[in-house]
C-alpha cells in the first residue's frame, strides 16, 4: 500500500506496481479487492450504505454462484441453471437441470437456490454468495415467516442448508447481472443433466460469462 512517507505515490502507480511485480494469484486478488472497493464506494454514494474494510476484503475473496429458473409450459416442464465461479470469477462449473411438472416461477427459482446449496455442500465450499434475480426467493429465505405451502417447505429446506454451511449468503441481482444462469436455465429443457466446465462449455455461454467478468 502507498505509505505516508511517499505521498506522491498514486493509486494508479501502486496498482501498476502490483500487476508488474507479483504472481497471477496476487494480481487477481488485488483486482477483486479494487472492484469491491468500487462497489462499496457506489453503495455509500447511491444507497447510503457503509461497508467496513474487513467486509470488503471478505467479499473480494467470496466465490459466486448464479442461479435462475425457467418455465416450459408447452412441455409441462421447468428448468434450473446454476453457474459456479471462484472469487476471481473463473468459471468452475455449470449445471443444467430440467424436471417435469407445472410450477410457478418462484418454485423454479427456489429449487435453483436449493440445487446451488446442495452443490456447495457436496463440494465442501465456503465463503459463497448465491445470486438470483428473484427478490421473492431472497426475502423468503432470509426471513423467518413460516409458510405452509410447497414454496414454504422449499424455503425452509434452504434455510436449514444455509445454517449448516460456512458463510453462505443470498443476494438479489437484476436480470442483466444474471445473464449466464438465465442462458443455462432457458436451454435446460434441451440439455438436462449436463455439466460443463470452462473447457467444454458452449461458446455462447462462455461469451456471456466473459462479458459478466467485466461488469
> How is the largest sheet built, in terms of strand order?
5-4-1-2-3-6
Mean of all residue-level pLDDT scores: 84
Query: What is the CATH class designation of the largest domain?
Result: Alpha Beta
Level-2 CATH architecture of the largest domain: 2-Layer Sandwich
Radius of gyration (CA) equals 19 Å
Report the order of strands and helices.
HHHEEEHEHHEHEH
The CATH homologous superfamily of the largest domain is called Ribonuclease H-like superfamily/Ribonuclease H
Number of domains: 2
CATH-defined fold name of the largest domain:
Nucleotidyltransferase, domain 5
- Choose one word for the global shape: globular
Class by alpha and beta content: alpha/beta
Pfam families: RVT_3
Domain RNase H type-1: 66-187
Organism: Cannabis sativa (Hemp)
Protein name: RNase H type-1 domain-containing protein
What does this structure look like?
The structure is a single chain. This protein is of the alpha/beta class and 215 residues long. The protein folds into two domains: 11-59; 62-213, Ribonuclease H-like superfamily/Ribonuclease H (Nucleotidyltransferase, domain 5). The protein has helices at 11-21, 24-47, 53-60, 105-122, 135-142, 150-164, 179-187, 203-213, and strands at 63-72, 77-85, 91-100, 128-132, 168-172, 195-196. A six-stranded mixed sheet has the order 5-4-1-2-3-6, sandwiched between helices. The longest helix is centred in the N-terminal third of the chain and has 24 residues, at 24-47.
Key phrases:
215 residues; alpha/beta; Nucleotidyltransferase, domain 5; 2 domains; 19% strand; nucleic acid binding; RNaseH-like_sf
Amino acid at each position: 500500500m502507498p505509505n505516508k512517507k511517499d505521498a506522491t505515490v498514486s493509486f494508479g502507480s501502486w496498482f501498476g506496481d502490483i500487476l508488474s511485480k507479483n504472481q497471477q494469484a496476487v494480481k487477481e486478488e488485488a483486482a477483486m479487492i479494487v472492484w469491491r472497493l468500487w462497489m462499496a464506494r457506489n453503495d455509500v454514494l447511491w444507497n447510503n450504505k457503509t461497508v467496513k474494510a474487513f467486509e470488503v476484503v471478505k467479499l473480494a475473496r467470496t466465490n459466486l454462484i448464479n442461479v435462475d429458473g425457467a418455465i416450459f409450459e408447452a412441455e409441462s416442464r421447468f428448468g434450473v441453471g446454476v453457474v459456479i465461479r471462484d472469487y476471481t470469477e473463473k468459471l468452475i462449473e455449470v449445471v443444467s437441470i430440467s424436471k417435469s411438472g407445472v410450477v410457478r416461477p418462484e418454485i423454479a427459482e427456489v429449487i435453483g437456490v436449493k440445487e446451488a446449496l446442495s452443490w456447495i455442500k457436496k463440494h465442501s465450499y465456503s465463503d459463497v454468495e448465491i445470486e438470483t434475480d428473484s427478490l421473492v426467493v431472497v426475502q423468503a429465505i432470509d426471513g423467518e415467516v413460516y409458510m405452509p405451502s410447497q414454496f414454504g417447505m422449499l424455503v425452509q429446506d434452504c434455510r436449514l442448508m444455509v445454517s449448516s454451511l460456512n458463510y453462505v449468503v443470498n443476494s438479489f441481482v437484476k436480470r442483466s447481472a444474471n445473464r449466464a444462469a438465465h442462458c443455462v436455465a432457458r436451454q435446460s429443457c434441451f440439455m438436462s443433466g449436463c455439466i460443463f466446465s470452462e473447457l467444454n462449455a458452449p461458446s455462447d455461454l462462455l461469451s456471456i460469462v466473459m462479458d459478466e467478468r467485466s461488469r
